[in-house]
Amino acid sequence: MGCVRWREMEYCHTMIDETVVTQLSDDALEATPIERAETIPSSWYTDARFHALDDATVFAHNWQCVGYRGQVEVPGDYFLANVAGNPIIVIRGKDRVLRAFYNVCRHRGGPLATEDGSCEVLQCKYHGWTYLLDGSLRGVPKFDRVELFDRKDYGLVPVQVECWEGLVFVNLADAARPLGDAIDGVKERMAPITIGNWQFAHRQDYDVRCNWKVYVDNYLEGYHIPFVHPELCKLYDYQKYVTEVHPTYSLQAAPLGPEDNIYSSGGGEAFYFFVFPNFMLNILPGRLQTNLVVPTAADRTRVMFWYFYEDVSSADAKRRIADDLAYSDRVQQEDIEICERVQEGLRSRAYDRGRFSVDQEQGVYDFQLRLKRTYREWRDRESG
Ligand code: FES
Ligand SMILES: [Fe+2]
Residue 356: which domain range? Predict the structure, then answer.
């Protein structure tokens, strides 16, 4: 292996070990048709160098769902997030404009906030510099004799933020394409269902001992459902389970069976939307569950579930929500167990690359193609 050269990646300060390029051969990056394609190499799931590569090339350049509008309804409300290792604060201004900034003070890098809340001004927790809600620096205590210092040069660093159907997204890229382009067609495909006014009910985070790509791969196919989720399988008319791949998203959909179940008194449909690289919208009658899949280390992933419902207040709704949370948690435990076993398998000497079911794994194939495109663009840029 050649000497290790660390390089600062643009604004996001992620350090990529460029020797990772040895794992990005033309062969591995090739976009072969699914009928002949192999899955991505196991090293992409296990090699620690991919953690920084993914943060810098995938997560810092795509829209990331970090919260929902109800968290920042009132001027002064804010919430915190972390995107590609960067602390972010999303805040509603006094002018009602929603803004996002790096949660990083321009003095010596302290945090403006350490938990979600509401404020009149943002005050750094370290030495008390204050910022207006539009990010401009206002108060600088005990700074009288400092020279060549102009407050207006030291405002908070802004991050692009947009709302879609009541969900809040940020993008760290300097010239991000609009969120609407990135998520185009999803709203139309779920019509006549509209989720924008559904009420938040619960958040549940899971830490999983696998690479984030293992979790996403697993999400993107229903192939495993009869084996990993025998109970869930009975919910659907599984013979009618389909996968659609669209330019900006993929969708798995299945009609629910005709019998009474916890989501309907028979009938209705399940929709599982995926927006690259790590966002999922799981819709059942009157219920939306979003998943955000965030790598915390090369072999660790945090998956955040937010639950929203059309009705959160009636007694019947409360019972249905409790049932849903318990049921979804069981399904999630099944997925966690299989994903952690797969991570072990990928680490083993026995495995490098596999194949795809043409019928059942188009979603996984499409995800891996997008990943390859992202890595290829980085590699080609790096090699000039
Ligand atoms: S780091 Fe914020 S005031 Fe010093
Ligand atoms: Fe699953």
Answer: 186-364
